[in-house]
Amino acid sequence: MYFATILDPRMKREFLRHAFETLIKYKMPENNPLSELDITAKAKSLTNDIEKRFENFYNEYNTDSNVPSETRGSQDVVHINDNDDFLGDYFVQSANPLASKETELTRYLNEGQTQGVKDFDILVWWKNNTSRYLILSRMAKGIILITCRFYYKVV
Q: HAT C-terminal dimerisation domain spans which residues (predicted)?
């Protein structure tokens, strides 16, 4: 469920953090309450843990993917003869703009949440954004379908 929440562009990690804060407050003993700062820190820690697990899962998809390597952020190698050359190091970095670019996952998470969409269909959103998020869209289709199947069997 956590991964499905991250893959919902309306929620992402912000919703997870909010949900954890709410749960911590709800389960907090009255005789030993936590400060707001402690609640926020604990919720952030839980969210970060899930995000790291999701990143590991993403990396597995990325490694096992049939997506062409250039779309996975592979880098062209620029060869400079003098390995100790300070200027050569600069040219290697500047000639390889992908080296400093963020991953598809980072780009998605840092992009704002989708808001104000009436009759939002998450699978349509991922279909429409497949070209922007090749790996994540594959993950989303599988995870969201499994989550929906589980949800509708339980309810």
A: 104-147
How far is residue 96 CA from its own chain's centroid? 24
Helix (H) or strand (E) holding 111, with range, is none
Q: Are 126 and 8 in contact (CB under 8 A)?
A: no
Cα separation, 12 vs 33, in Å, equals 28
Query: Is the pTM above the cut of 0.90?
Result: no
Contacts of 19 (CB under 8 A, 6+ apart): 5
Radius of gyration of the chain (CA): 20
Q: What is the DSSP letter of 99?
A: G
Q: What is the pLDDT of residue 62?
A: 83
